[in-house]
Design goal:
Layout lengths: L4 H9 L2 H15 L4 E11 L28 H14 L3 E6 L6 H15 L4 E5 L7 H8 L3 E3 L6 H7 L5 H13 L3 E3 L2 E3 L5 H13 L6 E6 L18 H14 L4 E4 L8 H9 L4 E3 L12 H11 L2 E2 L15
Parallel strand pairs: 1-2, 1-9, 1-10, 2-3, 3-4, 4-5, 6-7, 7-8, 8-9
This protein binds S-adenosylmethionine (SAM), 6-(5-methyl-2-OXO-imidazolidin-4-yl)-hexanoic acid (DTB) and iron/sulfur cluster.
The site of iron/sulfur cluster has 9 residues, from loops.
């Protein structure tokens, strides 16, 4: 039985050391605690989105600094994937600012997926809501993961997004699973949600059957011009963020938990606490979709300080769990 919202809420109430100890113990039962998976993001289609997600730089409804760009060419995407591979990323994630892909768009994205896959990388796409049959087309092209976040609790979602519903998102997640794709599904912390919302959100993820293989935990990146970043908006306490990572690790012990957006604003010691709490994946490369991410060199230096190794796809699956645990 997955942990429910009450179980997870109780985790949040634990003394910090007890919570971290539980998370770290479970982490070591399921993974090599010193290996971190590296995913590189590319915004293949930027801005001009019809949706009104209150955190997003790419909604056409808000006045942000992001300029709309058409879908990138195959060549540009392949060059970016090659560069990411050369830096050591094992997964390449292509993001598009769409409510969902049109058939014509999807045909171009499936070509990109084929090309990136042929470089020997894992492939991920995040294209918004999918229609019947679209997940199958992506699976046939060799897509490994589809990213589609629930982002927050069901009850808080309606305060953040009005153009589509939580059930629309769950429906796409079902289609993704039905096509045999791996699921990458997480959310954003620091959008004015309560601790109870964070617990409910993690319970929604844990209740997916099976739970997502990959769970991105983003810290809200404040984008001027978006409703969630109006002057005076509160910022989430960093310790509460670490608690959320630990609770995600405990609720989904066998999933990769990704320390996602927000790392540019986090000092090394806060990121170290997140790894200790069970994060074992990051976005790697100097850009997220429209905002900066730490430079690869800075990440490699941090890894060296912490004795962390990038996860290597060539190693057999048990690399995720070593005998030293
Ligand atoms: N349009 C597609 C969708 O909404 O699923 C894919 C791209 S969308 C930008 C992917 C995810 O990026 C969102 O679900 C959200 O979790 C994350 N994201 C977007 N803006 C963010 C921000 N300002 N801070 C943190 N995470 C953000
Ligand atoms: C996810 O959970 N975080 C990524 C990825 N999935 C697509 C996106 C983060 C975006 C941060 C803000 C930006 O760069 O626009
Ligand atoms: Fe569009 Fe995705 Fe941004 Fe929402 S999060 S506005 S769907 S790009």
């Amino acid at each position: 039985m997955p942990l429910d919202a009450a179980d997870i809420a109780a985790l949040f109430e634990l003394p910090f050391s007890d919570l971290i100890y539980r998370a770290q113990t479970l982490h070591r039962q399921h993974f090599d605690p010193n290996a971190v998976q590296l995913s590189t993001l590319l915004s293949i289609k930027t801005g001009g989105c019809s949706e009104d997600c209150g955190y997003c730089s790419q909604s056409a409804r808000f006045h942000t600094d992001v300029e709309s760009q058409p879908l990138m060419s195959q060549e540009t995407v392949i060059a970016a994937a090659q560069a990411a591979k050369a830096r050591g990323a094992t997964r390449f994630c292509m993001g598009a600012a769409w409510r969902g892909p049109k058939e014509k768009d999807l045909a171009q994205v499936t070509e990109m997926v084929r090309a990136v896959k042929s470089l020997g990388m894992e492939t991920c796409a995040t294209l918004g809501l999918l229609r019947e049959g679209q997940a199958e087309q992506l699976a046939q092209a060799g897509l490994d993961y589809y990213n589609h976040n629930l982002d927050t609790s069901r009850s808080h979602y309606d305060n953040i997004v009005h153009t589509h519903s939580y059930d629309n998102r769950l429906d796409t997640l079902r289609k993704v699973r039905g096509a045999g794709l791996k699921v990458c599904c997480g959310g954003i912390m620091g959008m004015g949600e309560s601790r109870a919302d964070r617990a409910q959100f993690l319970a929604e993820l844990a209740a997916l059957d099976p739970p997502p293989e990959s769970v991105p935990i983003n810290l809200l990146v404040h984008i001027p011009g978006t409703p969630l970043s109006e002057p005076g908006t509160s910022v989430l306490d960093p310790i509460e963020f670490v608690r959320t990572v630990a609770a995600a690790r405990i609720a989904m012990p066998a999933s990769f938990v990704r320390l996602s957006a927000g790392r540019s604003q986090m000092p090394d010691h806060l990121q170290a606490l997140c790894f200790l709490a069970g994060a074992n994946s990051i976005f790697y490369g100097d850009r997220l979709l429209t905002t900066p991410n730490p430079e690869s060199d800075a990440d490699l230096k941090l890894f060296e300080k912490l004795g962390i190794r990038p996860l290597n796809l060539e190693m057999p699956e048990p690399q995720r769990k070593t005998t030293e645990a």
